[in-house]
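Support reply, case 0932

Customer input (verbatim):
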Amino acid sequence: MDKFLLKLFLTYVNIVNMKDLFIEKGVLINDAQLEKFEKYREILLFYNERFNITTITEKKEVYVKHFLDSCLCSDLFMDNSNVIEIGSGGGFPSVPLKIMRDDLSFTLVESTGKKCTFLKEVVKELDLKNVDVLNGRAEDFGKDKRYREKFDHVTARAVAKLNTLCEYCIPFLKVKGSFIALKANAEEEIKEAQNAIAVLGGKISLIKEYSLSLEDAKRTVIKIEKIKNTPSQYPRGNGKERKQPL
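Our regenerated output:
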């Protein structure tokens, strides 16, 4: 077998194996989407050497713990909705969601300039349409009239405890929009966040628990519906969201 045919065969085997990982969890994915995921993984590993984006670098773990995990909440987003992600980092869950749901429009908020450079490169190389990257803090953008209460959904993964995260995220939502938070085992965090959710105008509508494998710890998706406007004093800023959570 010549080198070209060998490369073609290995690419096919890789696509089949990765596709099986998604199908096992009920996520339908096509070859074009898998090719984008593989290109995304290559960009992630390249920039990770300089920017320290993730500690997860082994191929299967990247696919399962970053890509697949991000996609398991894809059905919670309304068709053609406008989504803002807080603390984008490596682009999880936003970039996997965009690969799977091209109808979604995304605004990615990240405070670290180097990570914004990485995210812009991902958007460019994957030719993702209707994706903007903002360099700054959520508590600043949350008070900006251009962004406050303008989004159908807000999402975040591995950014802060839920009570703090609610103050960062809920101000961006329109009434009747929803905050979709991806967490690890979040039973205690959910209890601690009840006051913050109520004060900020939200109500929990869904808690979905799952694991990615038999060896993996429990993970949680929390969907918080916005039922009324967020009081104007939130987010408070100056680090109070973390130091003195609601």
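We compared this against your earlier run and they match. Two observations from our side: The chain is about 40% helix and 20% strand. The two ends are 64 Å apart (CA to CA). Please reopen the case if you see a mismatch on your end.
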